[in-house]
Amino acid sequence: MNTKKIVVVGNGMVGHYYVEKMAALEQAFEITVIGAEPRPAYDRVHLSEVFSGKDPEDLALTTREHYKQIGVQAHFGDAVVSIDRENKEVITELGRHFAYDKLILATGSYPFVPPVPGSDAKACLTYRTIDDLGAIRAQARLGKVGVVVGGGLLGLECANALKNLGLETHVVEFAPGLMGVQLDEGGSGMLRSMIEELNVQVHTSKATQKIVAGKEHTLRMEFADGGALETDLIVFSAGIRPNDQLAKQAGLEIGERGGIIIDYHCRTSDSNIFAIGECALFGGKIFGLVAPGYRMADAALSQLSDSPQSFQGADMSTKLKLLGIDVGSIGDSHGKTLVDDKVPASFLYSNDRERVYKKIVVSPDGKKLLGAVLVGDCSDYDNLLQLYLNDMDLPENPEHIILPADDANSTAFSAMQLPSTATICSCLNVTKGDIVAAIDAGCTTVAEVKSSTKASTGCGGCAALLKSTVDTELAARGVEINNHLCEHFAYSRQDLFHMIKVGRLEHFDEVLNKHGSGLGCEVCKPTVGSILASLWNDYILKPQHLPLQDTNDNFLANMQKDGTYSIVPRIPGGEISADKLIVIGEVAKKYSLYTKITGGQRIDLFGARVNQLPEIWSELVEAGFETGHAYGKALRTVKSCVGNSWCRYGVQDSVSMAIYIENRYKGIRSPHKIKSAVSGCTRECAEAQSKDFGVIATENGWNLYVCGNGGMKPRHADLFATDLDDATLIKYIDRFLMFYIRTADRLQRTSVWMNNLEGGLDYLREVVIDDKLGLAEELEAQMALLLDKYQCEWKTTIEDPERLKRFRQFVNSDKDDSHIVFVQERDQPRPAKEQERDALTTA
Amino acid sequence: MTNAALSHSPFDPIAIFDRSDLQENAGVCVLINDVQVAVFYLPKESPSIFALHNWDPLGKANVLYRGIVGDLNGERVVASPLYKQHFSLDTGRCLEEESVCVPVYEAFIEGETVTITLQSRCHK
Ligand code: SRM
Ligand SMILES: Cc1cc2nc3c(=O)[nH]c(=O)nc-3n(C[C@H](O)[C@H](O)[C@H](O)COP(=O)(O)OP(=O)(O)OC[C@H]3O[C@@H](n4cnc5c(N)ncnc54)[C@H](O)[C@@H]3O)c2cc1C
Ligand code: SF4
Ligand code: FES
Questions:
Q1: Does residue A108 have its Cβ closer than 6 Å to ligand 2?
Q2: A460 CA closest ligand 4 atom index
Q3: How many CB atoms lie within 10 A of CB A595?
Q4: Other C-beta atoms within 10 Å of A665: how many?
Q5: Four-way CATH pick for A635-788: 3.20.20.140, 3.30.470.20, 3.40.50.2300, 3.30.413.10
Q6: pLDDT single digits (tens) A604-628
Q7: Is-same-fold flag (A4-110+242-302; A124-238)?
Q8: Average pLDDT over residues A358-381
Q9: ipTM higher than 0.90?
């Protein structure tokens, strides 16, 4: 039997979903996907996050390698230019021909640019692809002001992007209100005033007549009402238009206002050609959201199986964060549905002081929810959506659902009450029943359910509901979630931290007796050692603590492959005097150590035998050096750039700040190492955005970034707070670090920790800045205690003869380890390789 | 003198040193005729002292005495400080790699005196 050839045109979100699903079918197909964009499919929904620090690569939904692995032929950067329906093949721009048995059009849509004279200027841009982002960023660098044309969902998201790029931002809307499709007048008005408070200027009822060269800025927009606005760039976000040219040329039926017409099976007027996603027109409608596109893909795919499903239209409810403001819209938010010729009733709660607007539209008999609008507070969204989607009965007084909950009238309902047909994740079409089935099949964590059902891997809006569903289901089965540290402790690191703190336990033995079993191991001992240090900051080589330390902490140096050690003195902020440089040079020379400048702006001395460490450190301490904790899960370096003392661009003294920060936090033990950096201006020479916490100077103070790292999976830090004064900056860092130390898992760096925090960055802001948990004072006090108890571990060690015994190679001999042999390379020693050593020792 | 002390011949190479040279719940190293021996002291266990060759056959360096001691599924072990494989304190067997074993030696404490012999106890 010939395998059927499937060709997919377009590798956007929907095209990719289709390909992935198809490749997973048991039946074998020959799948080819052709995408016009130069890269494999990515998450367009989260495009704007690139402007708040996310790497475009983090948006990738797949890779070329992955397609290869699942047997899909993929071609990127080439567009299909015609369809030869007679010979059943498509032809690309590069002249390639691909034969098909079934053709899937998933060409998506493009941003509509109104035909205003001048709208083809270089500074007029659109916002849909990763390449668009590059163009916007490049143009933004040249100017100060940016305008978004279009006050819909995408336009407002784009406004946020311009704001993040540091532009003075305007939104120009043709209609009288913002987000007219989703919001009613009241909601839209509330949204407008909240946006204006963020210094984004909103101009409504403005029709742009022409765009000409500006006087003070690059462009000048002239409006029908006689007004004008000067700007350096314009992003058009005035709606989308389906990419239907290809289909039109091929003679497929096209809607009056565009869109490839499809039936319930997502079939076009040619039964061998399907159309899915934003290029398709169903029931006279284009569905501009990703979830309906996925449903179309499912329906199209099922036509190849024995049990075809149909596409029946889709729910267009949305929940979004626009410019940091929660906005939600469900069903018929305008209250236009007539039920038995009767108008629906609506209930409204509006609170100007707290900036909250909520409206529900209910059937005339008050029994069912027809729609809702939420602005400023979306906490009811999940509940309302479930009531709406599952056609559930409303409580007797529906208004209680949106009134601020006090204990008396709390209407929050539990996931238990949902029927098993309830959709939990609408992007991936996962029902409560699917989740229950996954748990029955053995999943015991949210992560497992996620990877098994794919729930919550789309827009992420359902994360909270998914978690509560999984948790209630697990609890109902009496399952406890296992995040045990190791076989000796049936607790997570966070639990242990709490128990040790509350029980005021100070020794590993106490902790083991009270909460653990067995002797311990190389996992729990260092973890408990680190917690004890984070809580009480005792000298870590006290006899009761010493056996807990990882080898490096145990000898206060980093073990190298041959059993020798490296030594990293602290050089705060990377600043070092000539005298100190000379001392390091002299010590290295005297003990024949290999020296290297590290990637962290300090100097590493390699090749010290364990018995040489105390002597070397005596000399370093004598010269005023302290330990650099290169061995510890602790603060490593705070890199700096030279800042405004020397640099012509610097706006603050980054070196002084880096030194201050490094000296402040040196020595505190944490779940993993912590790195930081301070840059003197936005040129960012210190690479602060790749650090666990990074500080960048602004004209008005400091911007704080958090949760970045280099290493195995680099991540850019997120902008956390802006224009802070010195004291506030330090206060936030204190709280941030202490909260991390308290709640992170073992060996979890800040980025992974934050990703696992429910609520992510926003939640972290609520805890650190808004003090939502009421913890701020305690966190600061704990930090103060740690700072107060700082000591240089090496200084303490060399002053205590008992401790120095630990650094003997042999307790019964003064000999050296004969296996350690060095050879010279580029005028410095390095460990001999095996052959070299054999040659040297037999000679 | 205990029986154990009597069981070695006076000609076996041995090391004798003070109990105070041991490190509670951790290791130290002794040299016997150019052989490096890692000696671990777990005061609450019985026996309380264990001696293994100091050579980490996987990390290829003389470092075992600097590892963390503990137990895995009830077996007393030291974790190599280089790459964290576990070696049984009782048998020298490597828990991760079946074919690997480090020599284990006789060791005992009498009063304040520790004695280590080069009598090998390795059984693959
Ligand atoms: C010495 C140095 C390399 C050098 O010659 O430049 C180095 C050496 C080691 N790094 Fe590193 N890292 C060094 C800078 C870095 C940097 C660059 C930086 O800090 O700007 C990074 C990437 C930035 C980051 O961490 O976010 C880096 C990412 C890592 C990682 C990966 C961490 C991650 O989250 O993915 C490890 C592995 C780990 O920690 O688990 C690691 C682990 C190590 C260890 C501890 C590996 C080991 O166990 O032997 C090395 C021992 C150091 C020693 O013996 O002294 N090193 N390492 C650098 C010391 C900087 C210092 O002054 O303290
Ligand atoms: C900034 C932004 C934010 C958004 N936020 C949300 C949100 O919060 N929630 C939500 O549900 N939706 C959101 N959307 C909409 C969502 O991204 C789309 O619904 C979804 O991407 C549609 O998928 P698609 O595959 O149909 O089209 P696309 O993702 O546009 O993919 C179509 C692909 O086909 C390619 N193509 C076109 N013609 C050809 C050709 N002739 N040959 C080869 N390739 C071709 C295109 O280059 C493109 O890569 C957002 C969109 C944007 C731009
Ligand atoms: S970051 Fe700015 S201030 Fe610092 S060195 Fe670079 S240009 Fe100068
Ligand atoms: S609803 Fe979008 S990921 Fe679940």
A1: yes
A2: 3
A3: 16
A4: 23
A5: 3.30.413.10
A6: 999 999 999 999 999 999 999 999 9
A7: yes
A8: 89
A9: no
